[in-house]
Amino acid sequence: MIEFRGAGPAEFTERLEAVIDVYTAAMNPPRDQITGRKSIMRNHATYPLFQCYFAELRNSSPAPGDLEKSQIVGFAYGFHGAPGQWWHDVVFRALTEQSGREAANAWLGDAFELAEIHVHPDYQGKGIGRAMIKTLCAGRRERSAVLSTHDQPTAARHLYASLGFTDLLARFVFPGGYEEYAIAGRPLPLP
Q1: What's the confidence (pLDDT) of residue 68?
Q2: Mapped to the 3 state alphabet, what secondary structure does the chain carry?
Q3: Rounded to whole angstroms, how far apart are CA atoms 172 and 127?
Q4: Domains in the chain, ordered, with CATH?
């Protein structure tokens, strides 16, 4: 049975190896990027109003001595975006250049940044990502929710669109990168 459970910064960093395993299975990144991604995720846990949810497969009858009673099959986290955070500053600059400072402030001036949303491939297509996003966004006091995703017709893009996220920037390449991303946002609260 899949259960959803909130986790604070301390538990998130304690379970970072399991989180990275899900991220690696879902995203299949180059091996040399894993250490950097781990460092970024650890740093994200220090950001203001960090909030994480795990989707866990519960083992209802663990073997004697089995300390792991659950397996993380999905995770999602976000935080209050603020000046001085790399993603926030890069996207704010690009959105200002494209649409003006007023639009950038409207979307990013008081935003909940959905930083990572990943479900292990064996559990995708079961509503886990949708449930985690809705749970994460419930009760948030920010004006908007924003995220970045590969700018391709993926299941993730379809999910975000079905939740009302619209593109703020398309075909966006982060500094030092080469892949194209879409920056998407929607007003809060989610329906």
Answers
A1: 55
A2: CEEEEEECHHHHHHCHHHHHHHHHHHHCCCHHHHHHHHHHHHHHCCCCCCEEEEEEEECCCCCCCCCCCEEEEEEEEEEECCCCCHHHHHHHHHHHHHHCHHHHHHHHCCEEEEEEEEECHHHCCCCHHHHHHHHHHCCCCCCEEEEEEECCCCHHHHHHHHCCCEEEEEEECCCCCCCCEEEEEEECCCC
A3: 28
A4: 2-187 (3.40.630.30)
Residue count of the chain? 191
pLDDT mean by block of 10 residues, the chain; 191 residues: 94 97 96 95 97 90 58 97 97 98 98 98 96 96 98 96 98 95 97 84
Known catalytic residues are 160
